[in-house]
């Protein structure tokens, strides 16, 4: 990254003017958006301690990166050429399976940072059972307009077009058949691959997916099964049809129901309510505005935000999925973990690649450090967020209920991992069997740890699930002609 651009970023941070904040009670501090008292310490940390060059070196050492030119069809002709950035790390084991990792929004290719070594080398994270020794060649393309991939100039460039580009990257690398993993919008890319390239993308794994509730008109069998399971509360094994009692629980309070309905607000704001170019003018010019936006999205998208409805005084403050530097320092001191604090950045904890963090042990999930949140912000700030905003709007359009991408059935086997929400009254995802009308669901694993970005927040469990899922598919003959070695 150009030093001139980093200097410009620092100048813009120094010139930041923060808005006034309302004096709200703790349980309501996020209702108006990102609180000033959360953002301001991170701004100070960004100016005084955060070092992009250190993070850049870390990513360059752990993630082998390349760029290649991909031709995509264009109307009118001629075809458009895009330089596509990707991570490609090959395993040393002969039975390794090519794994296409599809990152989501607002993340980037660095989402794979914590799991790539354990995926390529199973001995780095021992396990037992199906797929315990399964290894993978890991390929992580950056969506055009994200990271260091060129943005498409096409207004209609969305999930299908991204899947086509990813498919061509795999062909360029010599992988004719492969498996795919993605969560969030990355799962949308996986679905487009499964529907449009089923001979190449032979299996998919995802985490915490969302499906539309089956209707009698769209899928009468699935609709009737859901109604029966709901009527019996999934407590009768023969009549549960894959549903679980927890999936069918109703919100216990009107306040909680209201909060759940408000969760998609940030998605609508970013994807449909505002036109992306209008929003891009402010976010392209203000790094702190982009940070505030990502903090808000991360908070609202996380199921733990339903704690706003909790009536418990002991938990009246809504729990954020990240900590500001002051909060993080206090937490570490209270846990007597002074030896884990970095000497160069006294308020940041040392990276632990696998196993639960200290904040995981209370069952409420992972807390993001300031450095981690700034890394994700930088990966939006560096290329500029305008292309990713256009892509997000198109992805929303591609997944309308009436679209073929939402309603068509895919025979490509799907494996699903679920992770808990931070609040026992909220669900981490929609009922899994809602997906049966549109997917061949072949494997399910329910984890007890809380996570909304599993590759980052629960990397050890996600790696074990990916191995077990695709290992099971291999042992059962579900995936034909794999493992496959690149030419």
TrEMBL record:
Q: Which positions fall inside the Epoxide hydrolase N-terminal domain?
A: 1-112
Mind listing the GO molecular function terms for this protein? epoxide hydrolase activity
Basic and acidic residues compositional bias, start-end: 330-362
Q: Which GO terms describe its biological process?
A: epoxide metabolic process
- UniProt keywords, alphabetically: Hydrolase
Question: What SUPFAM superfamilies does the record tag this protein with?
Answer: alpha/beta-Hydrolases
**InterPro entries listed in its UniProt record:** AB_hydrolase_fold, Epoxide_hydro_N, Epoxide_hydrolase
Q: Which family does it belong to?
A: Belongs to the peptidase S33 family.
Q: What is this protein called?
A: Alpha/beta-hydrolase
Q: Which organism is it from?
A: Pleomassaria siparia CBS 279.74
């Amino acid at each position: 990254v150009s030093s001139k651009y980093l200097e410009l970023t620092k100048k813009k941070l120094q010139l930041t003017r923060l808005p006034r904040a309302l004096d709200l009670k703790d349980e309501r501090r996020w209702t108006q958006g990102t609180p000033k008292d959360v953002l301001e310490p991170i701004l100070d940390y960004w100016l005084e301690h955060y070092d992009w060059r250190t993070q850049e070196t870390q990513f360059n050492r752990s993630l082998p990166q390349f760029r290649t030119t991909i031709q995509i069809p264009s109307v009118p002709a001629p075809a458009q050429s895009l330089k596509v950035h990707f991570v490609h790390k090959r395993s040393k084991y002969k039975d390794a399976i090519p794994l296409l990792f599809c990152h989501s929004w607002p993340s980037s290719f660095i989402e794979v940072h914590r799991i790539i070594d354990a995926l390529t080398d199973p001995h780095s994270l021992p396990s037992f059972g199906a797929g315990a020794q399964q290894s993978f060649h890991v390929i992580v393309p950056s969506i055009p307009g994200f990271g260091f991939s060129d943005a498409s100039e096409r207004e209609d460039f969305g999930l299908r077009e991204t899947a086509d580009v990813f498919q061509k990257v795999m062909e360029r690398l010599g992988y004719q058949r492969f498996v795919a993993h993605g969560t969030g919008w990355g799962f949308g890319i996986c679905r487009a691959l499964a529907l449009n390239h089923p001979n190449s993308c032979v299996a998919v794994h995802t985490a915490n997916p969302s499906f539309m509730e089956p209707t009698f008109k769209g899928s009468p069998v699935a609709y009737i099964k859901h109604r029966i399971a709901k009527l019996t509360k999934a407590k009768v094994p023969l009549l549960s049809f894959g549903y679980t009692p927890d999936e069918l629980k109703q919100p216990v309070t009107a306040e909680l129901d209201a909060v759940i309905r408000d969760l998609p607000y940030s998605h609508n704001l970013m994807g449909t309510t505002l036109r992306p170019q209008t929003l891009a003018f402010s976010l392209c010019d203000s790094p702190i505005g982009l940070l505030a936006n990502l903090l808000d999205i991360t908070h609202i998208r996380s199921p733990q935000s339903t704690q706003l409805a909790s009536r418990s005084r002991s938990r009246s403050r809504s729990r954020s999925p990240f900590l500001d530097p002051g909060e993080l320092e206090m937490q570490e001191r209270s846990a007597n973990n002074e030896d884990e604090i970095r000497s160069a950045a006294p308020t940041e904890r040392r990276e632990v690649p696998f196993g639960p963090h200290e904040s995981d042990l209370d069952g409420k999930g992972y807390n993001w450090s300031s450095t981690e949140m700034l890394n994700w912000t930088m990966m939006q700030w560096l290329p500029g967020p305008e292309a990713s905003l256009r892509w997000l709007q198109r992805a929303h359009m591609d997944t309308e209920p009436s679209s073929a991408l939402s309603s068509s059935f895919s025979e490509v086997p799907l494996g699903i991992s679920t992770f808990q929400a931070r609040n026992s009254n909220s669900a981490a995802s929609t009922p899994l069997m809602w997906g049966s009308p549109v997917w061949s669901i072949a494997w399910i694993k329910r984890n007890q740890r809380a996570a909304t970005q599993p590759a980052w927040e629960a990397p050890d469990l996600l790696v074990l699930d990916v191995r077990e899922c695709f290992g099971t598919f291999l042992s059962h003959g579900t995936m034909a002609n794999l493992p496959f070695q690149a030419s």
